[in-house]
Specification:
Length: about 400
């Protein structure tokens, strides 16, 4: 094979099979194995003094970690990327590296709840104040930017309620005011939402979800658009002693190779399930931006290249006991806090308990549904039986 492994003219589906591969590192094997190790030995003082990065000490990353970082930066057209031990640690490190005491930050009200907790605890203790803004604010964010606003944090679609944000408009306003834009791009993925091309400065992913893809490792990444921002965040990341196991980096690299085909299947299954749900008499709304006519569909169509298998489902009011009767008896949907693996999941979420405003009315039931790789007909039959149990319990 002689073509350039990072051939930027090739399609994503082709690039994802090639990025980060280095025959010198893999000794000719197709995949780079997990290089385990801490200490690197040097033959001379001069060699030791010249050493840097993964050639100096294991905490700064092994060749396996660096291969995954290079692959992820390449796929998102970033200057570089930093692995972290989880998606949440990628969010917290990116935030910590972007603020100083006395700063103000703007965070979407639809943010992943642990990100909100971090702002309310650690950032607050450091003297950083947070304002939660309505996710659909778009260019109107300019009215909320203060002279000391250093960060605008976005997440699109939003956690639990799936509002699609106008990221280009938010970036334009934030940059005009000198603020940095961070985005939790876990739902979008490098394939479906080119965050850095839309103006985001730091694109953050929980790789635990679709990149690892098999629910067997925790991993995160921060991809930086600009080399100077990368260096600044990397310095912070290094100073904090953040490191990732090469075994987990290996699982990330392995999952990455099949990302595009799995995502396509997740989207196809989710669309079939979402379309069926929309017609059900107990369903008030399906919050899946890829579904024509669903909230956010037009912006999704404008900015996204595809969708993941995660969406929200709003049911007409029912008691917690009726919802439990539905969920306790599911055959194919498991209950669990993550998503992005091959398996379907369903969870009762209550955004009204911590949000300033949500599209879910008082009393309505909000479920988060992850459509895995099972056949959609089996998933629909499972939901049909579950909704019947809910109706029977409620009667
Ligand atoms: C949108 C979003 N961002 C970040 C995270 C955190 O990822 P991790 O579990 O890898 O820390 C999650 C986890 O559920 C999530 O849903």
């Amino acid at each position: 094979m002689s073509e350039d492994p990072t051939d930027s003219k090739a399609q994503f589906e082709t690039r994802v099979t090639r990025v980060g591969r280095d025959e010198a590192l893999s000794q000719g094997l197709v995949s780079i194995p997990p290089y385990r190790g801490s200490t690197v030995l040097f033959n001379t003082v001069a060699d030791l003094q010249k050493a840097s990065g993964h050639r100096a000490y294991g905490r700064w990353g092994t060749p396996t970690n660096r291969a995954l970082e290079a692959a992820l930066a390449d796929l998102e057209d970033g200057a570089n990327a930093m692995l972290t031990p989880s998606g949440l640690s990628a969010i917290t490190i990116a935030l910590l590296a972007s603020v100083k005491p006395g700063d103000h930050i703007l965070v979407t009200d639809s943010v992943y709840p642990p990100t909100r907790s971090f702002c309310e605890t650690v950032l607050k203790a450091l003297g950083v104040t947070t304002t939660y803004y309505p996710p659909l604010i778009g260019a109107g964010i300019q009215d909320l930017l203060q002279p000391n606003t250093s960060v605008v944090f976005t997440e699109s679609p939003g956690s639990g309620t799936f509002e699609v944000q106008d990221i280009p408009a938010i970036c334009a306003a934030a940059h005009a005011a000198g603020a940095r834009v961070l985005m939790d791009n876990t739902w979008g993925t490098a394939l479906n939402f080119p965050a850095l091309r839309h103006g985001v400065d730091l694109s953050i992913h929980s790789l635990t979800k679709y990149v690892v893809g098999h629910s067997d490792a925790l991993l995160g990444v921060i991809v930086a658009r600009d080399r100077d921002v990368y260096r600044q965040v990397r310095g912070f990341h290094g100073a904090m002693g953040i490191t990732v196991s090469p075994d987990d980096a290996f699982l990330g690299l392995r999952g990455l190779r099949t990302l595009s085909v799995r995502l396509r299947q997740h989207q196809e299954g989710a669309l079939a399930v979402a379309q069926w749900l929309r017609e059900h008499p107990l369903v008030r709304e399906v919050l899946y931006p890829a579904l024509p006519g669903a909230p956010g569909h037009d912006l999704w169509k404008r900015d996204f290249k595809g969708a993941s298998g995660l969406f929200g489902l709003v049911l007409k009011p029912a008691s917690d006991a009726a919802v439990a009767a539905m969920l306790d008896g599911m055959r194919h949907f498991g209950m669990g806090f993550s998503w992005g693996g091959f398996e379907s999941l369903i969870l009762h979420v209550k955004p009204a308990s911590y949000r300033i405003s949500t599209p879910v009315a008082e009393g309505d039931v909000c479920l988060r549904v992850h459509v895995g790789l099972e056949h959609p007909q089996d998933l629909i039959a499972d939901l049909d039986a579950g909704l019947s149990r809910l109706a029977t319990h409620a009667a």
